[in-house]
Amino acid sequence: MVNQPPVKKSAAREWVESIVIALLLALFIREFFVQAFKIPSGSMVPTLLVGDRLMVNKLRYGPKVRFTDKRLPGFSKSRRGDIIVFIFPEDPKRDFIKRLIAFGGETVEIKDGDIFVNGKLVEDPVINKIYYYNRGDYGQEGQVIKVPEGHIYVLGDNSASSHDSRFWGFVPEKNIIGRAEFIYWPVKRLRFINE
User: Fold this and answer.
1) Does this model's pTM top 0.90?
2) Nearest CA among 114, 60, 107 for reference residue 83
3) Could you say which of 64, 98, 159, 162 is catalytic?
4) Is 93 a catalytic residue?
5) Active site residue 98
6) N or C end of the chain: which has fewer CB within 10 A?
7) How far apart are CA 195 and CA 152, in angstroms?
């Protein structure tokens, strides 16, 4: 039996294989673990500024399986006060970022700038420190809104100029992409997002 010398790959083929593997790995990580987002508006000021670039953790709540309503298991549940990125219900091609205020089955009322969930003042300091204005069809003064099951109610931290659940209603839970974890750009704002 004659030993054949191993076939040597060309340098070009090795480069192409390396690039394809790196690209597939990057797509896999983006699809199931983390995704970068850029803040386009001032709706989350002062927490997030226009132009901030941040990483969103998809694994925390369980990443969505593309082209389905299925979600892989996550390692925690969403909580009131989380800053989340979601698919905008009125335009599925756009992603929005807001603070989660209430879950399906709960009632929400904005009264004197404070948030009341199920008739009780929300004591969470990240929500409590913001003055929320009564605006829109789902945030009128004296109006108690019931969040439908399977949906959430979200608000921007810059309540005076945020287009949020007060105006367009509720976000289906299946639209949640992930939780905003940290700002990576600009460098002077590099930090974890403290809720």
Assistant:
1) no
2) 60
3) 98
4) no
5) yes
6) N
7) 18
Residue 32 reports pLDDT greater than 70: no
Instruction: Give the angle 117-120-121 at the CA atoms, nearest 5°.
Output: 90
What pLDDT digit, counting tens, does each position of 136-191 carry? 999 999 999 999 999 999 999 999 999 999 999 999 999 999 999 999 999 999 99
Buried/exposed 90-120: b ≥16 CB within 10 Å, e otherwise: eeeeebbbbbbbbbeeeebbbeeeebbbeee
Q: Which amino acid is at 41?
A: S
Catalytic residue among 8, 9, 41, 43: 43
Q: What are the extents of the domains in the chain?
A: 35-192
Short-list 88, 109, 85, 61, CA closest to 170: 88
Average pLDDT over every residue of 84-108: 95
Window from 24-33, 99-108, 184-193 with minimum mean pLDDT: 24-33
Confidence class for position 100, pLDDT limits 50, 70, 90: very high
If 0-12 CB within 10 Å is exposed, 13-18 middle and 19+ buried, where does residue 44 land?
A: buried
Strands 83-87 and 191-192: unpaired
Q: Per the CATH hierarchy, to which homologous superfamily does domain 35-192 belong?
A: Umud Fragment, subunit A (2.10.109.10)
C-beta of residue 97 within 8 angstroms of C-beta of residue 85: yes
